Amino acid sequence: MGERQNTIVCSFDPRNPRMNAFHVHEWIYEQLHLQEESIRMIQIDGAKRCVYIKFNDEEFMNKVLQDSEGRLEYKHDN
């Protein structure tokens, strides 16, 4: 079983509509300002309404957490 090192888990309200993969990726790049080379993996768990973002290094992950203060919003189109 893999470890969750350098990983941020984004949890979404289960009462809201599901987001498709395109919207998840768009949200990550627009809200977190992440570049492709800084991310090792993105995993979407639709049933749990979570997105796991695994970073290449801990320093950058900590910067993202500090800049976002651990909270971001997603607004649905509808």
Features:
78 residues; Alpha-Beta Plaits; alpha+beta
Topology record:
Blueprint (H helix, E strand, L loop, with lengths): L6 E5 L9 H11 L7 E7 L4 E6 L2 H11 L10
Antiparallel strand pairs: 1-3, 2-3
Distance between the termini: 38 Å
- What is the alpha-carbon Rg in Å? 12 Å
**Can you name the CATH architecture?**
2-Layer Sandwich
Low-confidence stretches: none
Shape: globular
- Overall tally of domains: 1
Order of helices and strands: EHEEH
Largest sheet: 3 strands, antiparallel
Describe what you observe in this structure:
The protein is an alpha+beta fold and 78 residues long. It has a single domain, classed as 2-Layer Sandwich (Alpha-Beta Plaits). It has helices at residues 21-31, 58-68, and strands spanning 7-11, 39-45, 50-55. The protein has a 3-stranded antiparallel β-sheet with strand order 1-3-2. Strand 2 (39-45) and strand 3 form a beta hairpin.
